[in-house]
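Reopening this one. Same input as before:
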Amino acid sequence: MKPRVAVIVLTYNGIADTLACLQSLAQMVYPGACYDVVVVDNASTDGTPAQVRAAFPNTIVIENKANLGFAAGNNVGLRYAQTHGYDYALLLNNDTEVAPDLLDRLVEAAETDQRIAAVGPIIYYHAAPNRIWSAGGSIDWQRGICRMRGEEEDCGQYPARIVDFVTGCAMLIRVAALPRIGLLDERFFMYFEETEWCVRASRAGYVCYFTPAAKVWHKIPLNARFDREYLAYYMTRNRLLFLRATKAGWRTWIDALIVQDLRTYLSLCLRPKWRTRKGRIGMRLAWIDFWRGRFGPAPVLEG
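Same output, byte for byte:
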């Protein structure tokens, strides 16, 4: 009998992507008796729960009464996995599609070492199926920068290995590790929460692992940039929250605040070719909210 897995698909509208994701999950070769798909809906307005139940009647649907964000929404699914005796929980974005052997490869990697708290697959762009979006992540603690490896064609250059973090877009979590590590930090709302969780896992004696044998395709634009106001807000505020939560040193704070954030903000304000780019208002509000201790969902911002 293989380990039991709860595949947690968090949704907030985007029903077409969700149905395509669930269709790909229905093609998995992992024994059907050993996994369940759990759709956690963050109060969608496009009829997601009803359409999911109609198209995939065996899917478990949990309806939240509000948009809880990525962290709190996935925590609903993780608590479900804990209380219903699953061995693993796979966090999976609704705008992804998976290889048929995804669960086999992820679980196979996790079962090699009880110290593995999370396993991440190789993630490609859906629009460019051999171009890597994520092949595991690393943290530059000197500068406080978190980077995912990728943005190149897959030539087999990324071996299976221990990594600093894996993206929450597709992340297999060992349920037995949750009491020691904890759930996702809901202050983040979205972005950086899985990275902070992976750091907590490492400091609790676990490791995070990447395996290219497991494959996922993500429907993120090829030219995606974090230059919209709300994205600038979350990426700025939450990186500072990440540094605080992980107790980064003062040199890291100086680099993050002055060398990186302040330079970026001044460039957006002063350089003629960047004046039309969005992000200034989001960055400014992010700094204010961070220092005032305001976390959770962002204020209403353009974009």
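So the earlier flakiness isn't reproducible anymore. For the record, The chain has a mean pLDDT of 92.
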